[in-house]
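Ticket #4471: complex job returned nothing on first submit. Input attached below:
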Amino acid sequence: MTTDRRVFLKKAVAITGGGLLFSQALDAKGLSSLFIKSSLYESVRHTFKNYRIHQSDKIDLKIPTIAENGAVVPLTVTSFLDNTEQIYIFVEKNPIPLVAIFDLSPMVESLVSARIKMAKTSDVVIIVKAQSRLYQLQREVKVTIGGCGG
Amino acid sequence: MKSIKIRTKLMDGKTQVRMLISHPMEHGRRKDKATGKMISMKYIQKLTVKYNDVIVVSTQLGAGVSKDPYFSFMLKGGATGDRIQVTWKDNLGNMDSLVQEIK
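Support reply: We reran it on our side without changes. The output follows.
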């Protein structure tokens, strides 16, 4: 499966003689520079710069309070805010807190289901962009290792 | 071999679109138990959903999404025969796409 980008990379590597390391570095950073290893606070700052984020009760998050398997935590986010444009999912204690960004067109309901990984017990933070304003909701999820569900 | 499965369900003027993609979603911090070597990063970075050739959902994903990612969205409207297309691309440049009609 060859894409333009792969071809470009191959050429770039051939020119620089940089070898595998070079292409891996590019791939790791590549197009999503928002997905950085950092604390939640830094990640949010990096993503939204200095925009103010409001707490909101117009976001609904369905997620188990106790997750028996941190590798698969199902969640459903529903936004009751008008003109929801984007939904961001962060997990506080993951090495890379930002998990996913969903850009929603007006042709879909502001409802998203997904399954995420959680490294350990921590807050899941949902940030919704609606009418160019940011709203957030967070919920703690306990991750039990060993699966006895304590 | 298709990596994407799409299920659609008409309900009350809306269409539920669910998708399951088989992909390892490796975050690069796991060791291969057999060889002791680190497993390198391999995860889907972009996933787009088109409805009749119009992008309705576009996502940017990190390796924090579970292995074999599952997503579901709710489309306003939708009718039998309308096309849903799901496309993904991972950090290594692999990609796959599937078009399916709403039943």
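The radius of gyration of chain B is 16 Å. Closing as resolved unless it happens again.
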